[in-house]
Structure formats: structure tokens, C-alpha cells
């Protein structure tokens, strides 16, 4: 008999119950009613795929999963369902679009796709604005009402419940582990359908073509901002681009923003959550990730480089020079921030984040960067 809960995966824990399952809105218990001849057992689980990340899990309510034959403990059903359910938490880093995708939306696709919309979602630690933002996608995966677990007080009963979400890697799906060999590209396709974006392929430039490729420059307001955006736009336009500057905020209307992204052929931005919108690009578009100082090349590749390739996009990675970083105005050029970023990394992620992600802005050397934009145009031929 398959174990109810599997805690062996490094990214997420999963419990799967079949039979007579009760989910009580007022409690933090998911209960499976069993016969007196069966063994009673219980587990605790944080149903969110950021296992081991204590900062994220502070915002995730722990659930108790129980097999019980005690009739006094088993609540009566208020609503009986005949379909399976997936119970998960949207807590963690909710609102950061990268984490929304890598921690929730992609794992939910992996976990729910085999049900072919015949499944109901119960979501804890969720805000109404988050549900509104991702409703088009959630409704593409389930044709049933989405239940905000924190708002219900009655008892929902199901024949089959999965607690938690399956997760493979950052912003990616491993087809060898996914139902029906689903891939990251399949996720991108369903995301585009959900938000009604229609352009399937990037512009194909010919020798005599008058139409210009559209370049989307993802601007950031507070950290890792471009300090010379006007100069970047002028240079891009001189090379033959139509340049569009847009900012991807937490509050941005995803329907509107996804259409802006889909209308473009090249997207560029400093490493950060806004690049998550590459999911809406047409196939064969080009992603240019600008990597700030701090030894962040590998994490940049994992977060956005590999996913871009898996979504059939072209990918260019540009690592800035010391002269292009505003850190030269704050730290000694001969100190560890510049000469030994490994010593900062050994202090832990919070130290890396504080210096290289929060305190750093970028002043692109347009002459040094020019060749990258030229290469992107060559990709579009």
C-alpha cells in the first residue's frame, strides 16, 4: 500500500488521501475516516513547495493530516463532492510574480493537469487580489469554484484529496517526472491561452523588411534599476528597434501586461521577478538577462535562462562590469564586495540579497551592451 504522505522530495511534501475525506474550514485538520480495523495515523505538513525556506514557510499554515476511526472526531459533511480536490497554500512569497509562478502556478499545473479540469482547488493563506490576478489561469485548470479555505466554516467531503503541490525545479518542469510528459513549454502554452494572448511566433526579419522588432525593457523602480534608461532607448532605436519601457509591479494587471509582452520580440531586464513575464513571449523571441555583480550568473541561468530555452525562446546573458554597477559609489573597489563576492555569499543569502540585489542599480555602458542587442536582431533573421 502506497504511503499517505511522502516527505522524501527536496522541494515539496505531498499527502494523498483516497476514501472518505473531510476538510473542515474552521480547523487545520484534513481527516480521512477509516474503519476500526485500520491503523490510525497522523502527519503534519506545510502544503507549499518551498520546503526548507523558513522565511517563506512563516506565511504558510501547517495542516494536520489524520486517518481516524473515532466517530466523535469525524465531523459530519456539509457538502459532498464527487470530484478530487487539491489543497495548497498560496502563502510564502505571494505577490512576487517569480515566486507566484515557480512556487504555485507551475507546481499546480504539474499536480492538477492529469485531472483535466475535473478537480477542485482549496487554497489557504490567500488574498482576494491574488485570486483575481490569476483567476483566468486557475479556471483553465479547474472548472469548479475555487475555495478560499480561510473563508469557509463548513465541512467539505471528497473521495480523493492531494495536500501540497509537486515541484521539480525553479520555473521549470521535468517532463520525465510530469504526468503525460508535460513540459515547461506546455505550461507556457496554457498560460498564454488563459490570458488570451495570440501571437505565436516572433517577427521573422528579412533583408528588406520595414517592420521593426519590438524591444520590451523591463524597468524597476527601486532596486536593480536602470539609471540611464533614456540612453538605452536611444541606442536601441538607433539599431532599428521599436523600444517599449514597462514596469511589472505586483499590482499590475496581468491581462494587460501579458498582451504588452506578447506584442514584443525581445525582452531585456536586470535579474529580477519582472523577467518571469517571458512566459508570454511568442516562440523564437529573445530574452536578454542583465546580471548584476555578485556572482549571480548561475542563479540567473537557473531562474530564467534554462526556462527560456525550455519555452523555445532564445537567450542571451549579459554580466555587467564594475563600472556599470552603482556599488562603486558605495563600496571600496579593492574590498570584498568587488574582489571576493564569495566571502559575501558565505555569509548567507540575506547578505547577498542586501548588497547585490537591494543596494545595486545598473548604469549600462551602451557601447559595451550594443553587441548584445545586435546579436538579438541576428537571432530574429
TrEMBL record:
Keyword Glycoprotein attached: yes
Cellular-component GO terms for this entry: Golgi membrane
Domain Glycosyltransferase 61 catalytic: 189-288
Primary localization class, coarse: Golgi
Record localization: Golgi apparatus membrane
GO molecular function: pentosyltransferase activity
Keyword terms, alphabetized: Glycoprotein, Glycosyltransferase, Transferase
InterPro entries, alphabetized: Glyco_transf_61_cat (IPR049625), Glycosyltransferase_61 (IPR007657)
One Pfam family per UniProt: Glyco_transf_61
Pathway of action: Glycan metabolism
Membrane topology designation: Single-pass type II membrane protein
Protein name (record): Glycosyltransferase 61 catalytic domain-containing protein
Amino acid at each position: 500500500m502506497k504511503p499517505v504522505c511522502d516527505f522524501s522530495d527536496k522541494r515539496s511534501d505531498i499527502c494523498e488521501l483516497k476514501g472518505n475525506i473531510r476538510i473542515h474550514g474552521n480547523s487545520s485538520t484534513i481527516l480521512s475516516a477509516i474503519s476500526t480495523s485500520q491503523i490510525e495515523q497522523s502527519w503534519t505538513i506545510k502544503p507549499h513547495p518551498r520546503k526548507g525556506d523558513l522565511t517563506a514557510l512563516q506565511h504558510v499554515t501547517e495542516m494536520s493530516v489524520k486517518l481516524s476511526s473515532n466517530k466523535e472526531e469525524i465531523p459530519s459533511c456539509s457538502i459532498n463532492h464527487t470530484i478530487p480536490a487539491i489543497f495548497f497554500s498560496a502563502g510564502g512569497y505571494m505577490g512576487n510574480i517569480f515566486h507566484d509562478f515557480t512556487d504555485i502556478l507551475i507546481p499546480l499545473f504539474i499536480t492538477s493537469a492529469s485531472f483535466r479540469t475535473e478537480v477542485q482547488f482549496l487554497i489557504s493563506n490567500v488574498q482576494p487580489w491574488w485570486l483575481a490576478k490569476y483567476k483566468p489561469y486557475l479556471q483553465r485548470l479547474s472548472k469548479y469554484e475555487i475555495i478560499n479555505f480561510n473563508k469557509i466554516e463548513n465541512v467539505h467531503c471528497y473521495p480523493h484529496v492531494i495536500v501540497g503541490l509537486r515541484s521539480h525545479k525553479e520555473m521549470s518542469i521535468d517532463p520525465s517526472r510530469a504526468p503525460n510528459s508535460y513540459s515547461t513549454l506546455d505550461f507556457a502554452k496554457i498560460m498564454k491561452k488563459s490570458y488570451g494572448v495570440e501571437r505565436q511566433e516572433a517577427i521573422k526579419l528579412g533583408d528588406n523588411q520595414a517592420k521593426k522588432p519590438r524591444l520590451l525593457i523591463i524597468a524597476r523602480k527601486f532596486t536593480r534599476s536602470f539609471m540611464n534608461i533614456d540612453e538605452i532607448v536611444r541606442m536601441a532605436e538607433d539599431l532599428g528597434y521599436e523600444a517599449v519601457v514597462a514596469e511589472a509591479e505586483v499590482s499590475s494587471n496581468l491581462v494587460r501586461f501579458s498582451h504588452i509582452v506578447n506584442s514584443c520580440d525581445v525582452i531585456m531586464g536586470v535579474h529580477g521577478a519582472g523577467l518571469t513575464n517571458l512566459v508570454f513571449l511568442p516562440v523564437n523571441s529573445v530574452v536578454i538577462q542583465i546580471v548584476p555583480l555578485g556572482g549571480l550568473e548561475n542563479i540567473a541561468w537557473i531562474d530564467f535562462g534554462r526556462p527560456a530555452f525550455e519555452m523555445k525562446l532564445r537567450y542571451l546573458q549579459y554580466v555587467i562590469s564594475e563600472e556599470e554597477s552603482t556599488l562603486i559609489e558605495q563600496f571600496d573597489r579593492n574590498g570584498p564586495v568587488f574582489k571576493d563576492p564569495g566571502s559575501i555569499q558565505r555569509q548567507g543569502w540575506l547578505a547577498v540579497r542586501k548588497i547585490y540585489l537591494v543596494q545595486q542599480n545598473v548604469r549600462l555602458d551602451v557601447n559595451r551592451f550594443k553587441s548584445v542587442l545586435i546579436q538579438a536582431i541576428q537571432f530574429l533573421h
